[in-house]
Amino acid sequence: MDKIFGAFAHRVASWSGQPLAFILAVTIIIGWILTGPLFHYSDTWQLIINTGTTIVTFLMVFLIQNAQNRDGSAIQAKLDYRRAWRGAWRSGWSTG
Asked: Is the N end or the C end of the chain the one with fewer CB atoms within 10 Å?
């Protein structure tokens, strides 16, 4: 399950950072604004955008956290590797 979520989170995070995702979001908001007069700026009209953005934000929090956890783990692994080599070099061990 963790691998499936990780793969899904990676794909969504990669896609959501693209210009096309931003254009899609702006298009949805412009469409919502343009429909305001049609629905007389009703409570339901406002509820649609509020609910949609809340759901997207809620889900994106988990996807972003997953991406940050993966990045943090990768950076920590690189730092550990560098520290190990640096310690070996300081102690006089060399490859040649």
From this structure: C
